[in-house]
Amino acid sequence: MPNKDISKVYLADIRKLAFFQEQATPSYWDEHWQIDDLGNYIRKVRSDGTFIPLVKKYLPLGSTILEGGCGRGQLVHALQYQGYKAIGIDSALKTVNEVKRIAPNLDIRYGDVRSLDIESNSLNGYISVGVIEHFWEGYHGVLSEMYRTLKLGGFLFVSFPSLSPLRKLKINLHLFPFSTSALAGQKADFFYQYALDFKTVSKEISNLGFKLLEIKHSNGIKGFKDEVIFFRHYLQRVYDGKEYKQLRPWLERALRSFAYHSTLLVMKKNG
To answer: CA dihedral defined by 136, 133, 18, 35, rounded to 10 degrees?
Structure first.
């Protein structure tokens, strides 16, 4: 997420940190995802350091996996390259059409993650990378579709920005403005995303009929630089990979437990 023109407000009634910048509409994502040589960008992604290893850990080759909110489709390509039947769905129509034109071998579809044109109990896996936090009204509609489309015994891999100990400390010290969802709703047209309490998200997914298997926190450098202004200029260069590359792994390990930006949950549909 860009650092410019962001305001953050803690909504005490729903215990979420709201980011206001530019509304995360499909047209926003169409513009945000525009890059030169999209085809090469997609084709060169054959794995990643997070989701592919987890998919391999829990699902056999040939499994059907949906990425809800697939963006440019690079993870769909990586899943297919690794031997899975991958489907990608996104609501950014221009991006979907461009990916389909450039990579017609990928199963990329236009759709809404809150109302999927996917048969019930048909998926072995569902991947959600930074999607559920972008809905002002909440993520329950997205979770319901995850549950509906996954088979019994299917696996959910869902990541989102979360309330790290650093962010919770800032909340306790009232370093963010406080408000309520009703008052903040007056500027919902500028809402970008929430930072969520991972324990709350995990509990609500579990209540649908999932079992929690793993919790992984990540992006400690980003979480720290975004919340501690004094270090932002220096850490941005490390985060971008332009300088001090040898320092980045050490800094990430040092900052992750306290300042992680995002959390990944691995969950299994039990019934």
So the answer is: -100
Q: Report which residue type is found at 95.
A: T
- From residue 260, give the alpha-carbon distance in Å to each of 19, 37, 120, 171: 16, 32, 34, 15
- Give residue-wise pLDDT tens across range 82-129: 999 999 999 999 999 999 999 999 999 999 999 999 999 999 999 999
Residue the block writes with tokens 């989701």: 51
* Percent of the chain scoring above 70 in pLDDT: 97
- Helix residue spans in the chain (DSSP H): 26-32, 38-43, 51-58, 74-82, 93-102, 140-149, 165-172, 181-184, 198-209, 220-227, 229-239, 248-259
Burial class (CB in 10 A: 0-12, 13-18, 19+), 174: exposed
User: Measuring CA to CA, how many Å separate 15 from each of 20, 180, 181?
Assistant: 16, 9, 10
Q: How many other CB atoms are there within 10 angstroms of residue 261's CB atom? A: 25
pTM equals: 0.93
**Residues paired with 269 in a beta bridge:** 210
- What are the DSSP calls for 213-254, one per residue? EEEEEE-HHHHHHHH-HHHHHHHHHHHTTSS-GGGHHHHHHH
The pair phi, psi for residue 194, each rounded to 5°, is -110, 155
